[in-house]
Amino acid sequence: MTTTTTRTSRRGLGGGLRATSKVLPEHARAHNRSLVLQHLFHEGPTSRAGLSRSTGLTRVTVSDLVGVLLAEGLVEELGTQPGRRVGKPAILVGMRTDAYQIVGLDLSDDTVLRGAVLTLTGEAVDRQVLPVDGRRGQDLVDLLARFARRLVASATRPVIGIGVGSPGVVDDTGRVVEAPNVEWSDLPLAALLTDRLGLPVHVANDANSAALAEYTYGGGGDSMIVLTVGKGVGAGVMVDGARVHGAGDAAGELGHVTVVEEGGQPCACGRRGCLETVLSAPALRRATDGLDAHEAEAVLADVGRTLGKTLAPVVGALNLGEVILAGPPELLAEPLRTAALETITARTMPATSAGLDLRMAALDDDVVLAGAAVLVLGAQLGVS
Amino acid sequence: MTTTTTRTSRRGLGGGLRATSKVLPEHARAHNRSLVLQHLFHEGPTSRAGLSRSTGLTRVTVSDLVGVLLAEGLVEELGTQPGRRVGKPAILVGMRTDAYQIVGLDLSDDTVLRGAVLTLTGEAVDRQVLPVDGRRGQDLVDLLARFARRLVASATRPVIGIGVGSPGVVDDTGRVVEAPNVEWSDLPLAALLTDRLGLPVHVANDANSAALAEYTYGGGGDSMIVLTVGKGVGAGVMVDGARVHGAGDAAGELGHVTVVEEGGQPCACGRRGCLETVLSAPALRRATDGLDAHEAEAVLADVGRTLGKTLAPVVGALNLGEVILAGPPELLAEPLRTAALETITARTMPATSAGLDLRMAALDDDVVLAGAAVLVLGAQLGVS
Fold this sequence. Notes:
By secondary structure, chain A is of the alpha/beta class.
């Protein structure tokens, strides 16, 4: 799990600042600090002069910032730059991705809480699982707080924050607007946990977390959709380098779009024939159960075509560069993946589909946990 | 055509600055200037003290900025605030939306160029039309430059820039990547026209311009899609307050998504059964030609259902708050509009469809011209 691509979101270029909040000196300092960390995070060790060139900040500003970051233990000096021949040897500065840790929590499975202690680069160094035993509502909040405390205690470095990938509709402040499966409604989960744990807690929808993880750690591009396929089907959308929230914070509810015209199966949402009724892992397993390999492939390809038909308008409207499937590869990879891609290609213009990639997630089972870490990285260090 | 709503895009709040470009003092000045203009543009006349309160800038900074804007003629003093009882009477400052003008050009019709001189609030004060007479390629660029020069000459105030709504795929720099109908390919239209006319020229796709216009002048929300229905079908998407560009600058190609499963009509794009083959104005006229009112309504409702099926995954994935139809109301309003809304509602979760509005565009025929004005407002004054 490494970081490879440079993030220069289109929204951040050119005009840059949006005219909706003032620029105070402390904002500029925090922004410049993020710039330096962002560069070191994505590009690796760099000299102070190099940081000055790439960020456009003066050398004095860079030196001051690096001094503060050294004192905080967030960066370290790594010896001199190889191959440099003239002048004073330049000392490389690198981000200490092991200096702090993040606790991530994944609530996307309704039978167990999954948790991990992660490095700043999203690698899980300690994974833990706790059975939910049917807990919901306030009981589940209590269990979650105990589980988080246990994970924080098992961290081997100071924890800079806790990220949570939750089911349901979650707003910008980490309030769970609605998550019927766990009986949460209008629950200020981030605030409650912050209060109990004494650490910054950030909460987002689980599929949205997965999209953040693929974007930050999985090499995902600026315009993409991540479909999480498990017990249900969720989606997280990134557009031009920003996570899509939607008018009511409910972006990504693609699993409950009707895709079966007649005789659709009943869905958990109370309606019939939703994408989830054909694409969820249990649905795919039921549909292929007892079939020989050839028959099973035909069934999976057929679901792939249904998925392609559903995604074609989304890909066309947004000109997405990638569609990423996160879930069991034995169900989602060939032939489902190829059938979906062929269907999208056939149903959209070449200008839309020419550069389209439809692939499996890079991060497997850790995708929601890693996304929870990205929430914390972004909020606490300004790195995305 | 008035401005009513406050724009506080979600992306501009909270974190605010994105860590991808540095903050220089001149950026902060330009940003603060935009803040003041943005407030006056959307909220109307305000005292210096009021500007200081709403922007968070110090009174000294606000006074300095207002001084510069007064000298430029962009704002004016408007007498004292009514109803104020204590202390020195506060002088209201208002944006002079008539101090400068914008030239807008609409190339979405393939038989005529439409142009207008517009106020800063997007009102067309002078409209002109020029037959294209089959011109394409370089000839069309020449014609466009002459037309723009004529419009600039007819302006009654200094022109701050020229905005162009063009067919085809247009990138961030105003380069037309591809517009087959007019035989433009990889054409740096904004740069060419800027060079010839000596004024800033900004170019965007016509449907994208329409989306900007509905967002800025038409009361459109932060998350919406505008469908332009004329000879063809285009779309512009706003997500969380930002225009969607897409991975290859081709966002909005919803008109060329396949919607007819079998026996679809041939489309201008060379494929069959695209949304455009059933929803374009000529297609709707052909389909209802010679039918009685009752039969025609059934046909239009059927197209509305097809549109709804196509839009449901887009609305679900993005949690759009509005779908806006720009085009002939006699074709697009009832029963097509209602059928589309009912279909989207039936095919998405209540969390998605509960707040959804599907309505006709507020700006009618001027929508692309007004959007061209928004391009200029944003780029030249930082107002959006």
